[in-house]
Amino acid sequence: MNLFSAFVVWLIIWWLTLFLILPIGIRGQAEEGEIVEGSEPGAPHRLDIKRKFIQTTIIGTIIWVLVCALIMSGIISWEMLGNLFKR
After folding, report:
1. Which one, of 47, 54, 42, lies nearest residue 18 by Cα?
2. Which of 28, 48, 67, 76 has the most CB atoms around its CB within 10 Å?
3. Phi/psi at 28 (nearest 5 deg)?
4. pLDDT digits (tens, 9 = 90+) for 33-84
5. How many alpha carbons lie under 13 Å from residue 48 in its C-beta half-sphere?
6. For the chain, what is the domain count?
């Protein structure tokens, strides 16, 4: 796996991890009882995006290291993944 492939794999894993982490722990404005006029009651009351990005980077990097280890060890190869989708 070259450097560009490793970066693309990390980027895909990072985005997937972000979309999994974003809704965790979010409470809506209606649940908190503080609805901002003109906004959706289900909109987040407080979204700590910096914390979410840090969590995403840590968890995504751990998953990426595991995936890269599987690919570089030969347990999973690019050819094997390609053959999986040909069927």
Report:
1. 54
2. 67
3. -75, 165
4. 777 788 787 778 888 899 999 999 999 999 999 999 988 888 887 788 778 7
5. 9
6. 1
Beta strands in the chain (DSSP E): none
Neighbours of 60 (CB within 10 A): 21
Question: Can you state the angle between helices 3-21 and 49-73, rounded to 10 degrees?
Answer: 140
Q: Give the C-alpha separation, 6 to 19, whole Å.
A: 20
Residue type (1 letter), 58: I
Range of the domain at 68: 3-86
pTM given for the model: 0.76
Whole-angstrom CA distances from 4 to 7, 30, 51 are 5, 45, 27
